[in-house]
Amino acid sequence: MGKKTSIYLTDELSSKLRLDEKRGLSVALNETIDRYDEIINSEKKRAESIFSESEWDAMRNACNGTIWQPAAIIRGGVLANVEDSLDEEIEYFEAARGELESKLRGLTVTQQFAVVELIEEFWASQSTAEATTE
């Protein structure tokens, strides 16, 4: 079962969703989100294995509080946040800045999105854990 809601669609978004009388909004959104989910989930495991736990900790810290909108910010965004981090912040997590930045530069666009999704999932799980302990 689903939930009925309303959203505002720009002309550009409507065009991207290829809306017409045969393909309604609900179908288009569900298909698009399902496709995105399949693409990202296929890259998450690969992305997880690229980085060490200390590198993940450094990236999570560097990206804490980042609002990832619009999508263009995601491309290269984790790298930019790491580059903006102080050396002490990276070293605190026992990560090597040069190696971490090199790995981030080598990611495909899809892997960059997967890394952002993994970081967002981490912080969402921390918020949920805090809420349940209060």
Observed structural traits:
134 residues, mainly alpha, 8 helices, 0% strand
What does this molecule look like?
With about 130 residues, the protein is mostly helical. The chain has one domain (about 25-134). The protein is about 70% helix and about 0% strand. It has 8 helices and no strands. The chain has helices at about 10-15, 25-50, 55-65, 70-75, 75-85, 85-90, 95-105, 110-134. α2 (about 25-50) crosses α8 (about 110-134) and α3 (about 55-65) crosses α8. The longest helix has 26 residues, at about 25-50. The two termini are about 30 Å apart.
Structural classification: mainly alpha
Helix content: over 70%
User: H/E series, N to C?
Assistant: HHHHHHHH
Radius of gyration, in Å, reads: 18 Å
Low-confidence parts, pLDDT < 50 over ≥5 residues?
Answer: none
Shape: elongated
Short description:
The protein has helices at 11-16, 25-50, 53-63, 71-74, 77-84, 87-92, 97-105, 109-133. It has 134 residues and is mainly α.
Lay out the secondary structure:
Layout: H1 11-16, H2 25-50, H3 53-63, H4 71-74, H5 77-84, H6 87-92, H7 97-105, H8 109-133
Helix pairs in contact: 2-8, 3-5, 3-8, 5-7
